Amino acid sequence: MKRISLLLILMSLSIIAQQEPDKIAFVADIHLQDIYADYENFDGIEIDGKNQKAKIRSMSAQLHSTRLLNENYFVLKAVLDDIAARGIKLVAFPGDYTDDGQPININGLAEILKTYKDQYNISFFITTGNHDPVRPYSIAAGKNDFLAKDGRNQPIYSEVGLYQEKLNEHKVLIEPRLEKAGYNYILNALAEFGFFPQQKYHYWETPFSNYDTNNYTFQKAHKAAQISNRRYSVNDSLSIPDASYLVEPKQGLWLLAIDGNSYVPQKDGNLSSASIGYNQTIAHKKHLFKWIKTVAERAKKLNKRLVAFSHYPAIDFNENASPELEKFLGKNKWQLERVPQEHIAETLAEAGIKLHFAGHMHINDTGKRIYNNKDFLVNIQTPSLAAYIPGYKILNLDKDFAEIKTVSINEVPRFDELFPLYKLEYEYLKNSNREIWNIDILNSKNYHDFTEYHLENLVKLRFLPNDWDADFKIYLSNLTSSELLKTVSTSSKLSQNFSEWKGYDMILDFYKIRNADKLAFQDIPERRLKEYKTIIAEAKAGKISEHIIDKKLLQFLSIFDKFINGLPANRFKIDLHNGDIQELE
User: Fold this and answer.
1) Predicted confidence (pLDDT) per residue in 367-420, tens digit
2) Which of 119-123, 263-267, 437-441, 543-547 has the lowest mean pLDDT?
3) Please, what sign has the CA dihedral across residues 470, 440, 72, 524?
């Protein structure tokens, strides 16, 4: 009798466990640099009150990069602490988890993840990004913008002869572990985080496996996981690993980790970058998309809850404004080559993929496509930890609905630990009459503010000079709010109540909303945001001149309109039967 009662209790617990929603955190584009790793020939810079010496990149380098390069070390730990406090046990990384796949940073990541795995029983699942691996095999590399204790640049490379130091730079130092590692090193170093099967997984396979759920054993999976068994032919003389895998970490839940990287031989003998993602991969890894379709078919047949994640977006991440952006800025601007072609989403939707999480673009966004009135795909862009607004996604999943919540990161312990070192750099630049950056960034009160300063500097130093028409940039930047309204409207009454701001403020807010979606609204005065909407509405209704500057203004406002009226991206629910999206906040 006792045995029967115990069996009934266990069966009840099993049923309850299966009914509980799956909870998964998605953390993208960490770009980790292990700032306290031990280098062979570089001691780093001493920080008052700290036993360790820091090996960091310069602030100047950070302010010209789409990502922060140093503080990520602190942010990752803060995010994992937050995830652990929420009791989440499944965490997926959609690529670019290190700066450039350097062994010194891969090892640092593995050490951090192992700590949280052991302490909190968290299972991590990683897929590749264009920064890891940069190329399918290891290549010599390094950086010329590490910071030395006197504020100058310190070049550090993996081999002799890769770089000749310039005037005012220190002599090149050698650190072999700064090479850009290939598949072999990365997959083996991070083997226990999804790339290789683990005994606790219910199921695991690759695109090349020759078993299924009916005859699965760990021994078969272990053999299939060997890198020599996970290669596809690029041409007669080159084969490359495919790190994609399917894993069932919890009964009934399938996570599909897609290696969206592909490398195409070039005329000069080198291989292409993987940065344009699916646009290149769909033509050069046909085996991958065939396998994805079989996975989705089997998931449906076996009643598995299927979630796909890759580094690369599957749907236009510019609120469907990419064609307008090309007209506004021109070709090869705004990283438009990374916008997935329409047949990417169609291929995945028709294969049966409904939920697809991605990174790569460092933005918060939701995209949706539906085909044949039945096949739909929702692409969820996960923010980067290394850019404005830093955050991650939480997915609650059951058989009928997917609820997504975006967690923005405001407070990060020790985020300002390196500020005294940046002051050394600033003083050197100032005293040597070199280009200096805005030191106000060191007044940041928290990590959120720090990333906002970073984006504002990035707009000024990189995006506007590189992407925008110079004349239009000057024109719009200098317009007052009233002047901007008068340009698009004949109503004199509206401008009487407008607050004081300039077109340059609108440009900055344009980029903030593009990066963070409605999460950026907290950083824009409510009144000003309403005035933006008024200007846009007047531009739609009014008559604008045929002057080229005014035409560009109309293009800008049309794109801005789409950015502030996109699909919900912060907290929302997806109906898994028809793809309907409902905003929850």
Assistant:
1) 999 998 889 999 999 999 999 999 999 999 999 999 999 999 999 999 999 999
2) 543-547
3) negative
If residue 533 lies in a helix (H) or strand (E), which one and from where to where?
Answer: helix 526-541
The pLDDT mean for the chain works out to 94
Q: Do 132 and 98 meet the contact criterion of CB atoms below 8 Å apart?
A: yes
- 496 has pLDDT over 80: no
Q: Which of 68, 59, 46, 146 is nearest to 104 (CA)?
A: 146
Single-letter code of the amino acid located at 287: H
Q: How far separated are the first and last CA of the chain, in Å rounded?
A: 51
Q: Helices 322-329 and 548-564 sit at what angle, rounded to 10 degrees?
A: 150
Q: Are 248 and 204 in contact (CB under 8 A)?
A: yes
**To the nearest whole percent, how much of the chain has pLDDT over 70?**
95
- Residue 282, H or E segment: helix 278-284
Block residue for tokens 């310190």: 154
Q: H/E element holding 53?
A: strand 53-54
Closest of 93, 103, 183, 95 to residue 135, by C-alpha: 183
Cα gap 407→385, rounded to integer Å: 11
Closest residue by Cα to residue 54 from 128, 122, 154, 200:
154
- Establish whether the linkage from the previous residue to 103 is cis, with ω within 30° of 0: no
Distance CA 251, CA 434 (A): 59
| Alpha-carbon torsion, ordered 215, 216, 220, 226, to 10 deg | 130
Instruction: For residue 3, name the pLDDT band (cuts at 50, 70, 90).
Output: low
Write the DSSP assignment of 428-472 as a string of letters. HHHHTT-----GGGGG-SSHHHHHHHHHHHHIIIIIHHHHS-HHH
How much is the average pLDDT of 122-148?
97
- Token representation of residue 254: 């399938």
d(CA 528, CA 498): 8
Structure-token match 């697809």, residue found = 356
Closest-CA residue to 83 (of 452, 397, 391, 446): 391
**Contacts of 281 by beta carbon, 8 Å cutoff, 6+ apart:** 260, 261, 262, 274, 288, 312
Helix (H) / strand (E) element for 375: namely strand 375-381
Place of tokens 């701001």: 501
DSSP secondary structure code for residue 258 in this structure: E
Within 13 Å of residue 413, how many CA atoms lie on the same side as its CB?
A: 6
Q: Is 427 exposed, middle or buried (0-12, 13-18, 19+ CB in 10 A)?
A: middle
Q: What's the length of the chain?
A: 585
